[in-house]
Write a structure and sequence with these properties.
Chain A is mainly alpha-helical. Helices cover 77% and strands 0% of the residues of chain A. By secondary structure, chain B is α+β, with helices and mostly antiparallel strands. Chain B has 12 helices and 15 strands. In chain B, the strands form 3 sheets. An 8-stranded antiparallel sheet of chain B has the order 4-5-8-9-15-14-13-12, with helices on one face. In chain B, strand 12 and strand 13 form a beta hairpin. Classes of the chains: A mainly alpha, B alpha+beta.
Amino acid sequence: MAIPPDSLLLEKVARGDEAAFETLFLRYYGQVYGVLFRVLGDRAEAEDLAQEVFLKLHGQRFRQGREHTLGGWLYRVAVNMALNRRRGEDRRDRREEAVAVEDRTLGAGEPPDPAHVALRNEERTLVRLALGELPARSRTCLVLRQAGLSYAEIAQALGVAQSSVGTLLARAEERFRERYLALREEEG
Amino acid sequence: MCIDIGTLRAYWDDELSPPQRAAVAGHLKECEACRDGLVRISALAAETSDVLDCLAPGPAETVTPAVALRAWRERAAVQPSLWQRFRGGFVSMSGGSFLRSWRAAVASLAVLAVVLSLAFTPVGSAAGELLKQFRAEQFAPVTIDPSFTPENAKELNPEDFGTFEARTEPTNQQVASLSEAQGLADFPVRGLQSVPAGLSTTPEMNVSTPAEAAFTFNRAKSTAALANMGIKAQLPDELDGATVRVYVPLNVQQVYAGPEGSKSGLLFAQGKSPTLEMPAVLDTPEMRDLFFALSGMPPEVVDQLRAITSSDTTVPVPVLKGDTSRSVEVDGVQGLLVTHKPATTGIEGPEGTYVVWQKNGVVYVLGGTVSETDLLQAANSLQP
């Protein structure tokens, strides 16, 4: 059976076809959630915003007869929501939040190996702090690439030209490495 | 190095077009500096990827899409938001993907306006008057800091205070011509005589049928919800069963698209003024204070709202801090012109502008990715 393309499904959604919407939901949920989780670091928050992204999609009407990169649209909405939620936190807040988030995560699941999880959470805290010191666009670019998005999707999500994604990534990586190493030094 | 780092980075990710890729590969054979550059860049990419890998959701943090879908269905069903309900209404500019951000902006604006107008219960209406009606006759800008979004006030769940009911759901219908739209509308449908250069001269046309929704307060629920929020309030008995009714009449939208693939375009919407009715019991200074307190709006926004006179006919139009707004003469009346400046607001999206005005009971919104001059020229070209 042929896999229906996004554009066809979107047209059906516009006509009120709920089954088409469910197909799109199942197709993109994992990736959208993955992006949000990486940005926010909190399962409940990521789930909440992922739901909002799809509520927005549900009410959205795309123009018929045009090719839409739905992925790019979804990630853009997701990233903007996540950044809005994180806006205005200064470094100290971020540090506290980063630690608090990992504490919550630690308490929430049932980790097979607590020592391993504690180590991972410590690492996550450090990585988040380093990311937090990057400009929002660099930070987001790194996270989106890490979540497995293509350059085209990243470009659409960030609202930049596809040809500048490589440069953004390379610069962001340099900057991240610098901040990450400096923070590790500080932490001892 | 002869090839820039961005291109090398994309080469490493296999994200170049085949001809670009071949050109880079050819150059690499010849150039040692670029080969070294590629080694450095790829090593850094791999190292960063290893470090960032810890952010990926672990097994206990993964959500099954099918489970999420069920949760979404439940949430969508209870989601009472005016946002969803009125999407198809007077501001729900359907059509044009180029207007995506505009549409979102204008739709959120309308929702906010409806929500805010609840705060606009004019104080001092005639004592015997049981029902107070609000119409859109004029528009006043209210500056809002972009970091404030209605999301910040989301703890306020309307369902905790009463029942939301979508009495009439709007439908959208494409029409082929103005005369077809006129056949459906109960007001004179007007068309633009002049459209800014570069835009299609044959608009896509849409008619949205009327929408009606009502919110009925439940006094016991409201008291409990307030108590939950730590507010002890003596609510008037008449609040129980008091219904706020919002009616958005039929409206016509025309979309003038820009060249294929561009994000430019112009949208023109027209429809009789939406109305909002509420019983006089909601029309007290105490209720208004309570609403402001609950809304979570920043004090400077509340101050601006309180400053608006003739609140039963004035729609507050949220304007982002950094955007500009001014009163203009348009179509022979006073309108409000708002221009979005992505650079100063920090909110991405195309630079664009819109003007909103009311004439003979019909509300007009014209907006798009054009200059203020072009926009006003188009607005003033309306058929009488």
